[in-house]
Amino acid sequence: MQVNRTLSIVGGTFEIISSGTNFKYHKNLRMMNNYKVETIDDGLNEFHVEFQGPKIFGCNLAAFYEGGVWKVRVTFSNDYPYTSPSIGFINRIYHPNVDETSGSICLNVLNQTWSPMYQLQNVFDVFLPQLLTYANPYDPLNREAAKLMMRDLTAYEQKVKEHCQTYAKKSEAVVAKEEEKSSDMELSEDECDSGDDEAACQMIID
Hints:
Strand content: 5-15%
Distance between the termini: 38 Å
Largest sheet: 5 strands, antiparallel
Number of strands: 5
Mean pLDDT: 78
């Protein structure tokens, strides 16, 4: 039976693993401290990462995906980092270079020009945002999306946002929980700034 386990890796709280194969996976996961990571069957070579549409202002294709939240499947091969990780969207995304059914992506840096110098963090901080920003309708995995993008960009934007709303929207319960956590953190910081209870504030910061 497949078991998913959410890791708390914010601030590098991940347990050190010294064996050769696991160490290279662990090193990458420790750098993913800004992302929610969910392992599969307690392994380190296959897991899910929560990826959010970038917040971009102005005339930019990536702005169409703002507010969307996707679960991205990551699989390391035995040859990693000399071969790229396998990356695929689990929930649907409307994009010319993403297969809408399988979630596989067409991205040159993963398929052809991958370097061992790249880290998994680069995939989520740089490569996937670039995929959303610089869609290539001339080499599509989703031909319908490619044709619509070239023919009617306004209609394409509407279709993207409909998919975000239907397949990539956080539940109201999750949003409320995150807002509550954010409010608690702001309140704690305000209490620290007031200097009323220095010891308690030090405990919060630690």
